[in-house]
Description:
This protein has 136 residues and is mainly beta. The chain has one domain (2-122). It has helices spanning 10-15, 95-104, and strands spanning 2-5, 20-23, 33-38, 46-52, 55-63, 84-88, 91-92, 119-122. The strands form two sheets. The protein has a five-stranded antiparallel β-sheet, covered by helices on one side. It has a three-stranded mixed β-sheet with strand order 1-3-4. The longest helix has 10 residues, at 95-104.
Amino acid sequence: MLLGFKDRFEPMVLDGSKTHSIREGDRWRVGFRADLYVRPRQKDMRLLFRAPVVRVETVEIWMRSASILGQVVAVDQPVYCGIIGIAIAGETLTDDEANLLAWNDGFRTAGPVRRAPAAIAQAPSPGRKGSPAGLS
């Protein structure tokens, strides 16, 4: 199945630092082959590589208190600390785990949350033991 990325994620996908991808819906299954492309459905789309889907988990992402949305978050601060809540497989992540999830998904600076995805498909790098999400 096609798994497309914007140009800004290409270096992180290729060097392995983007260890998973969060996607809306429930079409992904363990064992599926993900065909990772940059610029999908464009004339210049390019295959980066193929990888098996090794884990699929339900992810919930929500905005916390609206009162903190107006705060300025410096680049050297944690990416999403205190702004959003994330639960994976029903277990709420700590702020540190949420920031690690955002970092591993390619978001290296604070930015807006555009949607609340429903599933996570992890690339073939092993997860960190002891984390509720198996984050690496």
